[in-house]
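hiii so um. not sure if this is the right channel but i have a protein structure encoded as tokens and i wanna go backwards to a sequence. like what aa goes where. can anyone help
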């Protein structure tokens, strides 16, 4: 079974977690038959390792770590890959993939133009 784990930075604002949870509910509607969860790099819970553990407990054999980050940087290039590598060592047999940041998606320009 495949899991999608949306990773966001985390914030002290409770509004952020509510927005992420709502996004996940909307994603679940379009991703029938897949595990869809969220986790945070810091500040907020669940943490990335906890989110991965939850996906594995629900039967995930493949986890797509979907980056809810606009651009590359230390978190995207170093911190998250390190956390995922540690999780892969813990969960032998589970395949991990990390997406590109949202800002690298070919439709981002269209999205911004739409927002304007």
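sure thing!! here u go:
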């Amino acid at each position: 079974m495949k899991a999608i784990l949306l990773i966001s930075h985390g914030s002290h604002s409770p509004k952020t977690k509510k927005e992420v949870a709502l996004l996940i509910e909307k994603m679940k509607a379009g991703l029938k038959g897949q595990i869809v969860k969220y986790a945070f790099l810091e500040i907020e819970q669940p943490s990335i390792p906890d989110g991965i553990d939850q996906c594995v407990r629900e039967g995930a054999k493949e986890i797509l770590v979907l980056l809810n980050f606009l651009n590359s940087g230390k978190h995207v290039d170093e911190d998250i890959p390190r956390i995922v590598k540690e999780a892969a060592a813990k969960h032998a047999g589970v395949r991990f993939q990390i997406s590109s940041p949202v800002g690298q998606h070919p439709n981002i320009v269209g999205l911004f133009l739409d927002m304007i």
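oh and The chain has one domain: 2-115.
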